């Protein structure tokens, strides 16, 4: 006996309308990071998913139980752009130590903060955790350990060389320039050698400095598990695209989502649109942002 059509319709409707309870934690204060994933979070909430947000920013669709993280009082945590300007050696190599120092201070502040402690003490359950990863995973491990739930990671840049093994993505520096190098896809011998040196350096720095800093927080009751937990990420979203990054082989667990923050085009005011279209010799558009 075949089930009635309306029964199949109701089953399909219930299945397609299933919503998730999502814990979204974004501990970085950088505005350039937030603009990348805010549209995704707003779309999730707009679509009916129950989104619990813990961040330094708010969304259009606000909930009363969202946690507003406090800005770290230590101004040294903020990156001064002047400190990233210098010789090629300073920009490519010494800047990594600046990022690791900032990551260490941020972990120390975040793991001891009252707001983050509330998340770890809460008895709420979630279907998935959505969070950003940038240099350190200190905030991810205790959340996953507490809630025992799948987690999705957002990279606000292209996939780092040391993060590629987490999702079994091949990363051969002989024909895939390391992210920090502005090299073309077709490299000569010296550029390949430079790429190899950078590939070795970023791995050594990550495992001996950043990962070691993360592991040091294990002494804290709110501490973390090491970077090995990141291999269990269900999905990694990267702010990259093959049209302006070099095409790379990826696996299903890694998805490029660059451009998801771009909103639909809006029509120009009528007088400007008329002026542009009636210009006989074209128009030069100059913008300061």
Automatic annotation (TrEMBL):
Keywords of the record: Glycosyltransferase, Transferase
Family to which this protein belongs: Belongs to the UDP-glycosyltransferase family.
One Pfam family, short name: UDPGT
The name this protein goes by in its record: UDP-glycosyltransferase
Alphabetized InterPro entries for the sequence: UDP-glycosyltransferase, UDP_glucos_trans
GO molecular function: UDP-glycosyltransferase activity
Domain of life per record: Eukaryota
């Amino acid at each position: 006996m075949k089930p009635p059509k309306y029964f199949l319709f109701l089953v399909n409707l219930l299945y397609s309308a299933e919503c998730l309870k999502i814990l979204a934690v974004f501990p970085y204060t950088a505005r350039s990071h937030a603009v990348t994933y805010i549209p995704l979070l707003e779309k999730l909430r707009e679509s009916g998913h129950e989104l619990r947000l813990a961040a330094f920013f708010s969304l259009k669709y606000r909930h009363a139980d969202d946690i507003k993280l406090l800005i770290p009082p230590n101004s040294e945590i903020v990156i001064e752009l002047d400190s990233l300007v210098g010789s090629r050696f300073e920009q490519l190599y010494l800047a990594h130590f600046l990022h690791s120092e900032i990551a260490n201070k941020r972990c120390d502040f975040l793991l001891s903060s009252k707001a983050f402690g509330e998340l770890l003490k809460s008895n709420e359950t979630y279907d998935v955790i959505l969070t950003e990863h940038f240099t350190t995973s200190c905030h991810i491990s205790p959340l996953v350990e507490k809630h025992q739930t799948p987690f999705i990671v957002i990279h606000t840049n292209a996939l780092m060389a040391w993060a590629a093994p987490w999702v079994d993505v091949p990363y051969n520096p002989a024909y895939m320039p390391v992210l920090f190098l502005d090299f073309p896809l077709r490299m000569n011998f010296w550029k390949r050698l430079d790429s190899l040196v950078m590939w070795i350096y970023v791995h050594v720095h990550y495992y001996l400095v950043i990962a070691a800093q993360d592991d040091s927080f294990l002494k804290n009751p709110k501490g973390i598990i090491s970077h090995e937990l990141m291999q269990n990420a269900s999905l990694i979203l990267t702010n990259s695209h093959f049209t302006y990054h070099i095409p790379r082989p990826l696996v299903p667990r890694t998805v490029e989502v660059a451009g998801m923050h771009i909103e639909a085009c809006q029509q120009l005011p009528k007088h400007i649109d008329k002026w542009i279209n009636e210009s006989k010799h074209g128009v030069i558009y100059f913008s300061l942002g």
